[in-house]
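Hey team,

Filing this mostly as a record. A colleague (T.K.) asked me to run one chain through the structure pipeline before their review meeting, and I want the input and output archived in the tracker in case anyone asks later how it was produced. No errors, nothing strange. Just documentation.

Input sequence:
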Amino acid sequence: MKLVTAIIQPHRLEEVKKELYAAQVNLITVSEVLGH
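Output structure:
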């Protein structure tokens, strides 16, 4: 098992989820973060 932490732009989330599913990654955790 490996842990991957990524910061992606919100409008790219669906594309990233689709690609992760294609790579057989079935479980992800998504957190929305605001600020800088």
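Quick notes for T.K.: The chain has a mean pLDDT of 93. The chain has one helix and no strands.
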